[in-house]
Design a protein that fits this description.
With 398 residues, this protein is an alpha+beta fold. It contains eleven helices and 16 strands. The radius of gyration is 22 Å and the shape is globular. 43% of the residues are buried.
């Protein structure tokens, strides 16, 4: 492996280009499992005394230092809201605090963690160089994580169940944003999730998505969920419509399991040119529409039978969205979670949280993170059922 790249000096266009080239050259000669050295290289170029990368855990509730070696046990890390690093993560803003520089790191809008630099003399010139360096760092981390477990090990603050391991491997990124649409999702309980799942894809002029809840718990549920998500993906990638996706996925579930196997869900697509949201409901709670920061109403669609029970599509509903509209899809675990005295989290509390987040101008991805944490915290004894949230936000045409 090459020695760490030299500090970029002076920080001008030529110096910046040389810095980026030196980082790429260093990364090319670095073993795939040595992600820590790549983080060190970014710090060296910026003239930092030290550089460390804090990885967001599966629940997006804590940060944990990336390490190359395998650790014994799981080291507890501060909760997001209780640290400066957590503040940088939740706000998506670089924070300079004394000699520490905390930089949020994300791939598109999916937040990976925070880059922590200990720097003796941070300047605006260095901040200009920081943005392209972090972009290169993200590309390197994402490409190299296919060959190592270092990032995935660092995401764990507790043991992940086998069912949850399978489910997380099935998921798309937790968030993606363009100038026309944002789609975000999150699962709880993150370390023991079973039958809940979601999927999305941004294709030409359309955002396609699905949220499902397979019957049962643990491994049996995740197996049904795996068939359902891949059935919906196959139909989507073959260019089939919502009704065909419903039937084909239902047939796949029925053919692979002997009895009593089904998945409730919602399948939808948003036309990014017109703002028309088309969706069908296979036994889920109706989604919620927010407009101008206020709760408008539940979207209505005559429910079809859950996928796998041989039903037909009762209705494909169409709702015209305006720029700025948010639609929340959720599984019943989100509102049926109970406190220690037996009270449900409930729809009114869910709506109130969404409205407050909208008026605070919280991004969709941060809204879901905070809402998920609130649902989990509401139950002192843990969730009795999985809770999954998917938010689609329409930004309008370009």
């Amino acid at each position: 492996m090459s020695p760490l790249p030299p500090k970029a000096e002076p920080v001008d266009e030529q110096g910046a280009g040389a810095a980026l080239a030196s980082l790429l050259e260093f990364a090319a000669s670095t073993p795939a499992d040595d992600l820590v050295s790549i983080v060190d290289a970014v710090g060296a170029i910026l003239g930092a005394d030290t550089a460390r990368f804090l990885v967001a855990d599966y629940a997006l509730s804590s940060l944990r230092y990336l390490r190359s070696e395998v650790e014994d046990g799981y080291q507890a890390m501060p909760v997001m809201g209780g640290t400066v690093a957590g503040l940088a993560f939740s706000r998506g803003e670089t924070i300079v605090s004394d000699d520490r520089v905390l930089v949020p790191v994300s791939e598109n809008s999916e937040r990976l963690g925070v880059l922590e630099l200990v720097h003796p003399a941070w300047t605006e010139d260095l901040e200009t160089l920081l943005e392209p360096l972090v972009r290169i760092l993200v590309l390197l981390l994402v490409s190299k994580r296919r060959y190592t477990d270092a990032l995935l090990r660092s995401r764990r603050t507790e043991a992940l169940s086998l069912a949850a391991e399978m489910q997380w491997g099935l998921l798309p990124p937790l968030s993606c944003a363009t100038s026309r649409v944002s789609v975000s999702g999150i699962l709880e309980p993150a370390y023991s999730i079973g039958g809940d799942s979601f999927d999305f894809a941004l294709n030409v002029d359309v955002a396609e998505f699905a949220i499902i809840d397979a019957v049962g718990h643990g491994m049996p549920a995740v197996l049904i969920s795996t068939v359902a998500i891949n059935g919906l993906r196959n139909a989507r990638r073959e260019g089939h419509g919502l009704e065909a996706a419903y039937h084909e996925t239902g047939d796949a579930i029925a053919s692979q399991f002997i009895r009593n196997a089904f998945a409730t869900g919602q399948i939808g697509s948003l036309d990014l040119t017109t703002g028309n949201l088309s969706w069908l409901n296979a036994g889920h709670p109706p989604p919620l529409l927010l407009r101008n920061g206020n709760y408008l109403h539940e979207l209505t669609c005559r429910p079809s039978l859950p996928m796998g029970l041989g039903g037909s599509v009762a209705e494909v509903s169409v709702e015209h969205l305006q720029a700025g509209d948010r639609v929340l899809f959720y599984t019943d675990g989100a509102i049926e979670t109970r406190s220690s005295n037996g009270d449900q989290f409930g729809l009114p509390r869910l709506v109130d949280f969404l409205v407050r987040a909208a008026h605070e101008r919280a991004a969709s991805v941060e809204t879901l993170r905070a809402l998920s944490a609130a649902i989990l915290a509401y139950s002192d004894t843990g969730l009795s059922d999985d809770a999954t949230l998917v938010m689609v936000e329409y930004h309008g045409t370009d």
